[in-house]
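Hi D.,

Good news: the full-assembly prediction came through. Inputs first.
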Amino acid sequence: MSNMIATRESYGNALCELGKINDKIVVFDADLSGSTKTAVFKKAFPERHFNAGIAEMNMAGMAAGMAACGKIPFISTFAVFGTGRIYDAVRNAICYPKLNVKLAMTHAGLTVGEDGATHQMLEDVALMTALPNMTVIVPADDTEAKQVVYAAAEVDGPVYMRFGRGKTEVIFDENYKFEVGKANVLTEGSDIAIFACGIMVAKALKACEELKKEGINASVVNVATIKPLDEKTVIEVAGKCGCAVTCEEHSVYGGLYSVISQCLAGNKPVPVKAVAVNDTFGESGKPDELLEKYGLTVENIISKAKEAIAMK
Amino acid sequence: MNLKEIASNVRVNIINQTADAQSGHPGGSLSGVEILTLLQFEVMNIPSYDDPDRDRFVLSKGHASPLLYGVLEQKGVLTKEDLKTFRKINTHLQGHPDMNKVTGVDMTAGSLGLGICAAVGMALAGKLDKKDYRVYSLLGDGEIQEGTVWEAFMSAAHYDLDNLCVIIDNNGLQIDGKVSDVMSPYPIKEKMEAFGFNAVEVDGHSFEELRAAFENAKNTKGRPTAIIAHTVKGKGVSFMENNASWHGSAPNEEQRIQAIKEIMEGSNE
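Then the structure:
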């Protein structure tokens, strides 16, 4: 059994390490520090951790003011509140003035589980990628998530980071190198390009193994940075394979499928199929049951890959 | 030049900007003239606008940009030529202030109820860094209908931000009419006190009363201060005074001439 760690845990641990080497880091939470794991930072640096209470808009606004005074605020809550509820503050107080605020949001996607649709954010990537000046990153595992936290602090401007609630398989070893704006080609194949992000990367790799048994060779690409998209790699890999499938724990609107299709439509038109949540809200249930019910599975990646190949 | 003369010049700047642009918000700019003039020329410590230890000003009611630009022209940061570009294509003088385009704008604002949140963050940063700078934020009395304003007020008191001074430009009018008719924020003073503020009410056009209130704020320790400034929307121009229709409409040429004449006459009284 491989090592399993939730990326929110990775975030809390990395944030704490970052706080040791950079005293400009301040952290805001909105009464969820135990869940978002900013409590780890709070324990180490209580004077640099601020609880905004259940008032997310003010949290974002206060962070903007702190950034205007030279701080590097990381703000955290659940993705549903940290993007949708506070969209106006993120747009007008953070992105428009290009203030150096890092949005580190947890509990994204269906894998929130039992809390149900109100808490299962499936549109956050759509909302955040639409904003000028915003960098959007969806890490795949613990190794990558930790590097994403350090990298975000180095970006001059706002960054949205999407972390998950549930334990996720660690797929990268210490040699893995995350770079903002760089997609990583994990396997080389010329029959189908599989672009994935977040928890779907591990599933894409499994689908790749299954496809290989049937003589189909896939290029699996981890597209952790949704924006700015590594267009060069996307065009190269999709061009070589002649068709593609995208995999994300997000709505089919405005996420990975959208940005990949947009990129390819204008540069290298090839058939692209989506494994994503098909324009619907989630519901209560266990994370694995939800992924199964909404088609975010290895089997569905395989089937969509075959459909894409058939369209070549 | 004395403060009264500067205030008149700022009023003329407000009329000229909105008339030249044929766009903008003269009413709520004119009501805040004494407040911002006194702040920027006397109360605030601003060795230079890029000094990290300077006092900060956040215009939370960002639509009163002609007021801020008008004062910055009097401070010598902007020129009369700059003001002529207000709201026009390629200008640095955006309809609502942009901190990356204009020196002297400490925070981008425009979406109501957000500037005050940033002001609280700035005051919090000052406390964290053990710096002495103070943060001032001007809000509209219609703006305080926004829920975020009260989130910000709650946090300012929670963090004992005695380096924060909030000024509410209580001119009594918003776009759709009287604030008391649209959605009453009253009683404001009692609400501010209940939220943990030191609250004082003053005549917002009296330099003397405003000066005393800012002094009171500086001397108040352990909690933020709110100055509820009773003002007249459109102050200084008879046909604009207490008339909500001048919230967001610009004077024509005839009205520009009449307005400037009245402002100059007022300054000689």
